[in-house]
Amino acid sequence: MTPARKAALSRAALTIIGWGVALWVFFPILWMAMTGFKSEIDAVSTPPKFFFHPTLASYHEVFERANYWHFAINSIVISVLGTIVALLFSVPCAYAMAFSPTKRTRGTLLWMLSTKMLPPVGVLVPIYILARNAGLLDTRTGLVIVYVLMNLPITVWMLFTFFKEVPREILEAGRMDGATRLGEVWHVLLPLSLPGVASTALLSLILSWNESFWSLNLTSSNAAPLPSFIASFSSPEGLFFGKLSAASTLAVAPILVFGWLSQKQLVRGLTFGAVK
Amino acid sequence: MSASTLAAPAPPRQSARRRGTLALVGPSVLILAAWATVPLIMTLWYSFQNYNLVDPTQHGFAKFDNYTYLLSDPDFWSSLANTAFLVIGVLVITVGFGTLLAVLYDQAFPGRSIARVLVISPFFIMPTVAALLWKNLMLHPIYGVYSNMMRMVGLTPIDWMSHYPLFTLTLIVSWEWLPFAVLILLTAIQSLDGEQKEAARMDGAGPVARFFYIIIPHLRRAITVVVMIETIFLLTVFAEITVTTAGGPGVATTNLAFLIYSRALLQFDVGGGSAGGVIAIIIANIVAAFLVRSVARNLET
Amino acid sequence: MANVTLQNVRKTYAGGNETIKGVSLTVENREFVVFVGPSGCGKSTLLRMIAGLEDITSGDLLIDGVRANEQQPAERGLAMVFQSYALYPHMTVEDNMGFALKLASVAKDERHSKVMDAARILQLEPWLKHKPGQLSGGQRQRVAIGRAIVRNPKVFLFDEPLSNLDAALRGQMRVELTSLHRKLGATTIYVTHDQIEAMTMADKIVVLRAGNVEQVGAPLELYHRPANLFVAGFIGAPKMNLLEARVLQVAADSVTVSALGQTFVIPVRPDGVTAGDGVTLGIRPEHLLHVSEGTLGGVVTLSERLGSLTILHVKSDDGTMLVVQTAGSDTTDVGAHVRLALPTDSAHLFRADGDALPHVAPRPLGPSHSGGGSDIPAAQTEHFHA
Ligand SMILES: Nc1ncnc2c1ncn2[C@@H]1O[C@H](COP(=O)(O)OP(=O)(O)OP(=O)(O)O)[C@@H](O)[C@H]1O
Ligand SMILES: [Mg+2]
Questions:
Q1: Concatenated DSSP letters for C301-352?
Q2: What terms describe the molecular function in GO for this protein (chain C) (predicted)?
């Protein structure tokens, strides 16, 4: 075999393996998306149907259950509000830590990270009781507060990592030009670290959207977001595969797209900069 | 205040600036401090109390009763064993396959970036969806697509969820976390100096030797990060259990998180649940100590 | 236009040692002052304190006689050009230059005309709509200067502005900056590592070491009358030869020393030295003469031919290494025996504590920097308009 043929062959093998593995890992999601467009009969047919008459029947049904929108809107409101509030707290915090570090900055950052290590189950009982006593059980406000606190260490860290990459001299040039602290942040820092800020916001959105511990435990109906909605399919209703798939697809699609778009920057945030 | 601090000239501007910085950092620190301490103290407090949400006759100081009760409960020990099985099983699967896949997707082939995106997709699927998707669409003994496929090739489908509940749960959670491992390890491999790989090639190292002598040592640090971050989340797997097995059959899939939940919110035994919470916090802290230390080394600026 | 005065200014960074240890200094109106000194001596710190980017721990900063310690950077009427340019990468060249005016709510038309003026001076007109990322290093440097000019500042501050440029461009920008200073006549404080920049651009050089001012003076003054060993060794390339010597005898207007196994009578006042003291004899490489009637003998160990001149490394008969600068046409080879003369009126003597002994008849300084000193601003102004 000539070296050229050998190279071509190993390249072909690589392509097949690479795509094979990718499709195998992705298959459940693909199957879910396909099943959403099947009739309930097709959804459970033996042998499984890869080619079928697409129908929107399942989606119609999911939408007709008036409460789908109720859960979806809760999800949107809670994760968007939670993200905005988290950014309002973390942008000033990360800015000060990145550009006016003191002796305590390092310790404070590590301490913030360590609060993330508190396992939610460990404090489930007191949080539940506190929320109940404050009348925050099953309210959007309650979940927003919890999500802000849950994501704050991550957003501060991520923003800190991104802000650190902005040369401090550029901010100083802004100060020489007459910018106030707010002006420095608004006119110089945020535009310069926009991709970083955007991916921080996306990560916060993703984490809030998918959060399935507090949402299941602190809400029941009023403020329940999509994870609770999907959880309700664990009952025999889940055997309506078409409907389950349509609802699941609706619940994950927006965040999946966000995730695809921001995967590169997410790495650094997720590892707190420990892996470059 | 000592005489020397009094004698030092007080810099007026600097303290003003420091106050400004404090005003920016303070709010975040304060709310996090409240979040990190108040519930913790309450958990500790409850864990020493007789406290039942529906039984007001039970109250007062319980000494170590909640702990002795918990520690003498076989369910607790089985929940610890289940937690360990789940955490270790998922770590082995995700790190093992993650490393292989990271090396795979570091190679150039047509459509690599799309394949890569497909592989990391499960990470963005919410746990309730992931669990139901696997339980029903994939593994349902009658209608699941895998069962169907097995029948097509003449095998008898397996009722995964009833016969191998914990193992199946481990596979589902591994599917969710595999992308995370791939994402981090791939990034780490790509940061490996291309010249180093080429130098190893010049030294006559084949692909296998390169994998063991160059790539694996380089990945050690990234693997540590993956192990620690996954551990933190895996210790408290909850939604997947709730929507698939609800801890069963029996207590076969009850981990520590689910045990606390069922004690406190299903059996309303706040004291017992809190004692479990304290134990969970202790375990998490041991892990966290390692994680924080490994991340801290990267903070040098 | 403005002058800047520092009075016993000190700086201690949080948790650190004292970085600036009491600097007093006056920068006159229209003067071009250069701070030089080894890395880490506090040049940037001092400049940033003047700019308002670092707090002054103690002491006073006066701009035009007004205490400015507590003023915000923008209130001080200064402009700074950073080593890394620090341009706003997300703004066009035009917006970069106009940003300060925009923050100061200057009307759009006026802003535009000021930016256009600066762009014309710096030949940046074709680039106004570009982002900094699309420009070359030299162009970025000009934008950074333009951003400073637009604000019409009282004082320009430069922190090693040319150190990121290649040698040719640095030479060109040096000339441009000097002529710009002539044109605008603005007070300028300039930090550099580069001796050539310091010598060619400065009206006055401030030599710093470890947070202290070692000497202040016109370039040739520092060159010919270094106040101490540090300045003598720091200014001038190749470095001054510094030789161990011992005082044999002192007179009112001379000191006799033994060095290199010979005796020299140096025409300096013997302030604070007596016979038997150890001192240092300094002689610049170009002042050592390679002549056949020289009294010092040695062997050439290395010869660096730079074309316009030749630098000989000579091992003298008593084993001391000497550096000698001779004409480019000097063809002496390695291994050759040479004879050197040491003209004693060009030599310097330094006490054991490092201070120079004053010359009895100080060497006249070059004509081009006659004004130089901070005490004759009028002469300086004339010099600029000449
Ligand atoms: N923000 C800071 N915090 C603590 N110490 C600092 C800080 N900035 C500078 N220093 C210290 O102060 C000293 C003087 O630093 P400075 O930057 O002024 O030196 P420099 O003369 O400009 O050096 P170079 O020529 O290398 O630019 C150094 O020892 C430096 O480590
Ligand atoms: Mg400097």
A1: EEEEE-SSEEEEEEEETTS-EEEEEEETT--PPTT-EEEEE--GGG-EEE-T
A2: ABC-type maltose transporter activity; ATP binding; ATP hydrolysis activity
- DSSP assignment of C156-192, as one string? EEEESTTTTS-HHHHHHHHHHHHHHHHHH--EEEEE-
Q: At what angle do helices B74-106 and A3-35 cross, to 10 degrees?
A: 130
Does the beta-carbon distance from C78 to A167 stay under 8 Å?
no
Closest CA to C206 of C373, C21, C377: C373
Alpha carbon C113 to chain centroid, angstroms: 35
Does B239 sit within 8 Å of A121, measured CB to CB?
A: no
For the segment B249-295, what is each residue's pLDDT rounded down to a tens digit? 878 888 888 888 888 777 777 788 888 888 888 888 887 777 667 66
Shared domain for B201 and B150, answered yes or no, is yes
Ordered per-residue pLDDT tens for chain B, 301 residues: 333 333 334 444 444 555 677 788 888 889 988 888 888 888 888 888 777 767 777 677 767 777 887 788 888 888 889 988 999 999 999 999 999 898 888 888 888 888 888 898 998 898 888 888 888 888 877 777 788 777 878 777 787 778 888 899 999 999 999 998 998 888 888 777 666 767 777 776 777 777 777 777 777 777 877 887 788 788 878 888 888 888 778 788 888 888 888 887 777 777 888 888 888 888 888 877 776 676 666 554 3
Contacts of A271 by beta carbon, 8 Å cutoff, 6+ apart: B184, B222, B225, B229
Residues of A in Cβ contact (< 8 Å) with C15: 103
CATH number of C4-229: 3.40.50.300
Q: Give the minimum alpha-carbon distance from B3 to chain A in angstroms, rounded to a whole number.
A: 23
Q: Which amino acid belongs to residue C364? A: P
| Pairing of the two strands C278-283 and C348-350 | antiparallel
**A173 inside 8 A of chain C by CB:** yes
**Residue C155, token pair as written in the block:** 């004082």
Q: CA-CA distance, C166 to C169, in Å (whole number)?
A: 5
The amino acid sitting at C69 is: N
- pLDDT value of position C157: 92
Place of tokens 């192990």: B227
- Cis peptide leading into residue B249 (ω within 30°): yes
The neighbour count for residue C336, using CB atoms within 10 Å, is 13
Q: Which atom of ligand 1 is nearest to the CA of C38?
A: 25
B108, B248: one domain: yes
Q: Ligand 1, residues C36, C41, C47, C159: which to mutate, most atoms within 8 A of Cβ?
A: C41
What does each C-alpha distance from C235 to A70, C208, C225, C346 come to in angstroms? Answer: 78, 12, 11, 16
Tally of helices (H runs) and strands (E runs) in chain A:
14, 0
Q: Which residues make Cβ contacts (< 8 Å) with residue C275, sequence separation at least 6? A: C247, C248, C249, C250
Q: Which of C87, C89, C103 has its CB closest to that of A178?
A: C103
Q: Contact at 8 Å (CB) between B36 and A98?
A: no
CA distances from A272 to A66, A147, A154, A158, C131 (A): 41, 19, 8, 7, 32
Q: What is the pLDDT of residues C221-239, one digit of tens each?
A: 999 989 999 999 888 888 9
**HSE toward the beta carbon, residue A204, CA cutoff 13 A:** 34
- Model's pTM, two decimal places? 0.78
Residue with CA closest to ligand 1 atom 19: C40
Please, is C327 exposed, middle or buried when counting C-beta atoms within 10 Å of its C-beta (0-12, 13-18, 19+)? exposed
Whole-number average pLDDT of chain B: 79
CATH number at residue B115: 1.10.3720.10
* CA dist., res. B98 & res. B178, Å (int): 6
Q: How far is the CA of C285 from the centre of ligand 2 (A)?
A: 30
Q: Is A188 found in the same domain as A115?
A: yes
d(CA B142, CA B148) in angstroms, rounded, equals 7
Domain count for chain A: 2
The CATH number of the structural domain formed by C240-381 is: 2.40.50.100
